[in-house]
Amino acid sequence: MRGAFVGGTPTRPTRRCYTVLAYIYEERRMRRLSLAIALIASSASAFASGLSLNSIQNLNQQQFYELSQDLGAALSYKPLEPADPLGLSGFDLGVTVTATSLVNTSALEIASSNNSVYSTLPQPGIRAVKGLPYNIDIGAMFSKVPDSSINVFGGELKWAVLPGGIALPAVALRATITRLNGVGQLDFETIGADVSVSKEFLVATPYIGTGEVWSRDSTDGLPLSQVNLSQYKLFGGVSFKLGPTNLVLEADSTGGIHSFSLLAGFRF
Hints:
Layout: E1 5-6, E2 9-10, H1 12-43, H2 61-75, E3 91-101, H3 105-111, E4 120-132, E5 136-144, E6 151-162, E7 170-181, E8 186-198, E9 204-219, E10 227-242, E11 245-254, E12 257-267
Antiparallel strand pairs: 1-2, 3-4, 3-12, 4-5, 5-6, 6-7, 7-8, 8-9, 9-10, 10-11, 11-12
């Protein structure tokens, strides 16, 4: 490679070549991961075929409590972003897939008209986050369990106490809310609060956080007492960003019930 190095240092054309090759590699990797998300979303209905929470009256109080535990973990807000703020002109837009490993499937089977309930609950969805002044971000999300009437609306308000920088990590406080829709027998919502830390390293920004999820589950005209739960939350993930393209992988444990999420979109 004559002329590729001068005095042990790569020449300018060689450095440009390395940059182009790195860009192509990252772009192809993002395309493969995005395709994986699309395949998961398109096949998600196979994991929740015919799921319908229309037999809540068949539950006893203990089973209703167990159902509320799974719903609290599955339907609570998933951060899917680092702690650093977007900035006044920033946006974070993406499509998501979350899969939650349920631990009380027997209660779900009784509450559903379908007696064959899978142990993993999928939720494809969309989300948008907008940057505001003073290191504040505000966001909204919508998700739906395939082949069912179950859907969830939610929102977040995040404040980056420390916005982070070259040497310092970002630290953020977040408040969240979600609400179940489409199930006539249930009135279910969650409220959450967490703190998270993240640090950018080239195209990857790992983050970790902890908090609490409070859920309220009540029925409409059924002889079941309202369930109020408090579940400890621990989550962590990594955001891969190349230009405006953004891909996030996240693991979440809420009340000891595990969820795994993917996001593909744009963050700028």
